[in-house]
Amino acid sequence: MDLSYNAEYDQYRAEVVAFLVKNWNLALARDETYVASFRKNATQAGYLYRNFPKQYGGAGVAPDVLQAQIIREEFAKVRAPKELGGNGTMMLAPTLVEYGTDQQKEKFIAKTLSGEYRWAQGYSEPGAGSDLASLKTKAELVGDEWVINGQKIWTTDAQSSNYMFALVRTETDVASKHAGISYLLIDMKQPGVTVRPLKPMYGGHAFCEVFLEDVRTPADWIVGERGEGWAVSKSTLKHERNSVGAATGALDTFNKLVKVAKTEILDGKPAIESPLIREQLGVLEGYVRAHLYSGYYQLTKDAQGKSAGIISMMNKINSSNIGHKVAEIATAVLEDKSLISPVFSPDHKPGNERWVNQILGSLAATIGGGTSNIQLNIIAERGLELPREESKN
Amino acid sequence: MYFDLTEEQYMLKDSIESMLASKNEDAQQVKKYDDKPGLDRDIWLALVAVGLPMVLPTEEQGGLGMGLLTLAVAAEVQGYYAAATPMQDHCLVVKALADHNAADGRLPGLLAGEQVAVLAWSEGQGNWLPSQWGLVEHDGRLNGVKRDVIFAADADFFLVGLQGQRLAMVAKDASGLVIEAVESVDRTQPISTLTFQNTPCEILTLAASQVGAIFDAALILQAAESFGLGRHSVQISVVYAKTREQFGRLIGEFQALKHQLANMALEVEPCQALYWYAAHAWDAIPEEAPRAAVIANAHITEIAVKTARAAVEVHGGIAITWEFVLHIWLKRAMHNKVRFGLPAAQRARSALLEDW
Ligand SMILES: Cc1cc2nc3c(=O)[nH]c(=O)nc-3n(C[C@H](O)[C@H](O)[C@H](O)COP(=O)(O)OP(=O)(O)OC[C@H]3O[C@@H](n4cnc5c(N)ncnc54)[C@H](O)[C@@H]3O)c2cc1C
């Protein structure tokens, strides 16, 4: 065990720090043009979009999880912008790198990384959530176009996306429900696409219903072969995971919670002085740190190209469970501020009542990306190799 | 031993249930939920017609003297249907006023539900308990703030908690009273902040034990209501598990779901007897009432939140939407858990009461 990075990595860290000192000015963090040009510089320097080929707008450097970790740490320290978030950069672009044709890469990756193309993930349907492979949206090849009919639901950010990557049923006479699925790219700005935003219970925008009626997409906008969509989508799901990223996020939230507990007054004293809050925070910190250090272990294994085993199946549910606990403690710390619905507007910044969005949002996190039950099934069936509960379809 | 409701209490429960089922079933609630939060007059009048404000005052006080258990059963049903009225608050103000002076001129209007009265106890930062009330009265005037007052915009009177565990009545149109609505998470019980500036009030002549009893009753009614919220969360989840299919079967066929639902029921169902006991103690074993009230309130308000959260997880994505009913109960449960003091504060008090 050696927690230090070797001299080569210390040197790398020094370079990252020097780059940030020279190129990043926090005072301009709200200036979109400045931020966009910072991202461009940081990409050219090899710090953002690291593993995307240069020709498609990436840095084109070889994967090195330790370097990536150093960048995450140093960028976070000075609050420099990381890669754009969202489905496009986090899911679609990596999938195209792995499975896309040259034309697809050419057309989509650079503009996705720059944020010009925004993507919706069209997987879930009203009847196909946990049982995603039972999806019914159909695509038929008519001449040189796919004609798509069906409905997607819970589609995050569909209202602001230009494109969707979707799982659709293209094959009928196949051995399993999985084998009939293909992965298509769809232009959302065309007749036949109807987007109906769904208001989440915590207000604001989150997800939508998307109705597809005789929607068309070119025959060659399929990623992977016909009937290979399930495997292609698995690559997307893999990219979605970032063990250390999520665990660092949990530690971040924990530290913020401690800070709030120091400022909020409960029964005449800072909440943090309450023995009960201390105990609850103490218990939570155990979970948070176990999660974080397990991330370090996974990072090490990833760096060696090896599997970390069952622990790598626990990241999502660990984060979800920590979210539940944070919600409980935040309620106790905020007391009656947790009764206030936070209002975000240009002329109003909410106070600590903004934690209400964590309290409610922690529930969304237990469902999106696979429910906690499904995570437990994965741990039990793939991790512990218990017999599978057979599906009846 | 007969540990059950009377036939009369069951009849009352049934009648409120069928009334609320017709006025506030889930789909109607979703429709109402986007309206400006406030008193649901229709339901208010129906609850008044059942005679709820008359339940607590004794016959000598001009009421029915039917006891807190009866009122608590009614509160349970109002929780189950998340009815948007301050009926529990109102009934407690009526009782406090009747204890103060059965001939008080405000009583007839309050008993008839023509006027609405609510409790103004919180001072923020966890100060809800009578021992924590810090607002001071000088020469019949108040200066200060009360927070988290429900339905303030619809109320005609406020029963304000003062330093020294005293209660005072303040009229809505009293001079120097400013009511400021707060954007509330729970839209079925919207909250406001009251600011008093040299505002006239009338101190009620109640013994400390009488004030304590009103507070205990508030805890018990809220526990009953929260039991109703919890039961609704279980009920709606069970129905969903029997209709939603994934992997070619009802999700309720998965043992994981069965155990989740069974555990939710296991947490909630015993709470009925817990609140019954507390309400009965308030009616018949007064020396036990303060602790029974605290135990029931802390336990049940906490379980109601836990159960509502579990219900969201049982439902999956649909429960994250504003259009689906579940968050209405979740948010009300969150409100009840905080209102009158968090479970931890209650339990600390319970330990003190028992001299632990
Ligand atoms: C905030 C948010 C954002 C989302 N964004 C997107 C998006 O951008 N694109 C997209 O395609 N989807 C998105 N989703 C959808 C998400 O992936 C699904 O909601 C999720 O997979 C669950 O499906 P469901 O909602 O249909 O619930 P269901 O699958 O119907 O689940 C209902 C209940 O049954 C349980 N259950 C189901 N099967 C089993 C089993 N075998 N064993 C035990 N229990 C089981 C579940 O755990 C749950 O408790 C999003 C969801 C949320 C909440």
Name some characteristics of this structure.
heterodimer; A: 393 residues; alpha+beta; Butyryl-CoA Dehydrogenase, subunit A, domain 2; Butyryl-CoA Dehydrogenase, subunit A, domain 3; 3 domains; four-stranded mixed sheet; four-stranded antiparallel sheet; globular; B: 356 residues; Butyryl-Coa Dehydrogenase, subunit A, domain 1; 13 helices; 14% strand; binds flavin-adenine dinucleotide
Describe the secondary structure blueprint for this structure.
The complex is a heterodimer of chains A (393) and B (356).
Chain A: H1 7-23, H2 32-44, H3 65-77, H4 87-99, H5 102-113, E1 119-122, E2 138-142, E3 145-156, E4 163-169, E5 181-187, E6 193-198, E7 207-218, E8 222-223, H6 229-240, H7 243-263, E9 265-266, E10 269-270, H8 275-303, H9 315-334, H10 355-365, H11 372-383
Parallel strand pairs in A: 1-4
Antiparallel strand pairs in A: 2-3, 3-7, 4-5, 5-8, 6-7, 9-10
Helix pairs in contact in A: 1-3, 4-5, 4-6, 7-8, 7-9, 8-9, 9-10
Chain B: H1 7-23, H2 26-32, H3 41-50, H4 52-55, H5 68-80, H6 87-100, H7 107-111, E1 117-120, E2 137-138, E3 141-150, E4 157-162, E5 166-171, E6 177-181, E7 191-200, E8 202-203, H8 208-241, E9 245-246, E10 249-250, H9 255-268, H10 270-284, H11 289-315, H12 326-338, H13 343-353
Parallel strand pairs in B: 1-4
Antiparallel strand pairs in B: 2-3, 3-7, 4-5, 5-8, 6-7, 9-10
Bound molecules: flavin-adenine dinucleotide.
